[in-house]
C-alpha cells in the first residue's frame, strides 16, 4: 500500500508538470501567432482561416491545462469528461494542422507572388536586407533599386517556409506526446485506487 501511494504521488507530480507544460505551450503558441502573423507590421500576414486552428490550439491548451489541474483534485466525473473532451478536440486539431501544413509548400509560388506584390517598397527592402536576397523569382524581379544581393528571395523564402513547417510539425508531435502522457497519468490517478 505504501509503495502504491509513493507511485501515485510521483505520477501526480508528473501530471502537474505536464499540465504546466500544456499551459505554457498554449501561451507560447498565442504569443508566437501574435508576434509572427497578427501584428500590424508583420511581414507574414496570414488569412484568418489559417490562423484559426493555430489560435484554437493555443486557447484549448490553456483551457485544458487548467481543467486538468481542476479535475485532479475533484471527484466529479464531469470534470474528467471535460478534460478528455477538450484534450480530444485539441489533439484532433493538431493532427489536422500537421497534415494540412504540407499544403503551405504546395501553394508557395502563388502565395509568395501575392505577398510580394502586397509589400511596400520599405518592407521589400527590409526583407531583402534581412535575408540578403534581391527580387522574387530573379534578382531583377520587382526588387528595390538599392538591392545589391545576387540571390533571388523566392529560394530564401521557400527555405524559411520549409523550416517553419518542419518546426511546427515537430512541436505538434511533441505536444501530442505530452497530451497523450497527460491522459495516461490522469487515467492512472483516477482509476487505480
TrEMBL record:
Keywords: Membrane, Transmembrane, Transmembrane helix. The chain crosses the membrane at residues 13-38, 50-69, 81-105, 171-192. It comes from the Eukaryota. The keyword Transmembrane applies. The keyword Transmembrane helix applies. This is Tetraspanin.
Amino acid at each position: 500500500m505504501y509503495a502504491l501511494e509513493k507511485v501515485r504521488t510521483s505520477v501526480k507530480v508528473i501530471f502537474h508538470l505536464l499540465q504546466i507544460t500544456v499551459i505554457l505551450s498554449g501561451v507560447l503558441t498565442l504569443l508566437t501567432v501574435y508576434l509572427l502573423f497578427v501584428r500590424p507590421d508583420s511581414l507574414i500576414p496570414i488569412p484568418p482561416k489559417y490562423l484559426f486552428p493555430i489560435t484554437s490550439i493555443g486557447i484549448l491548451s490553456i483551457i485544458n491545462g487548467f481543467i486538468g489541474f481542476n479535475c485532479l483534485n475533484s471527484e466529479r466525473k464531469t470534470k474528467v469528461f471535460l478534460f478528455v473532451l477538450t484534450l480530444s478536440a485539441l489533439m484532433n486539431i493538431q493532427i489536422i494542422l500537421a497534415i494540412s501544413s504540407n499544403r503551405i509548400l504546395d501553394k508557395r509560388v502563388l502565395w509568395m507572388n501575392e505577398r510580394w506584390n502586397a509589400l511596400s517598397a520599405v518592407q521589400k527592402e527590409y526583407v531583402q536586407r534581412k535575408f540578403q536576397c534581391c527580387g522574387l523569382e530573379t534578382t531583377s524581379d520587382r526588387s528595390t533599386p538599392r538591392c545589391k544581393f545576387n540571390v533571388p528571395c523566392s529560394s530564401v523564402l521557400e527555405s524559411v517556409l520549409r523550416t517553419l513547417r518542419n518546426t511546427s510539425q515537430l512541436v505538434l508531435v511533441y505536444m501530442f506526446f505530452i497530451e497523450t502522457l497527460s491522459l495516461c497519468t490522469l487515467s492512472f490517478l483516477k482509476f487505480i485506487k
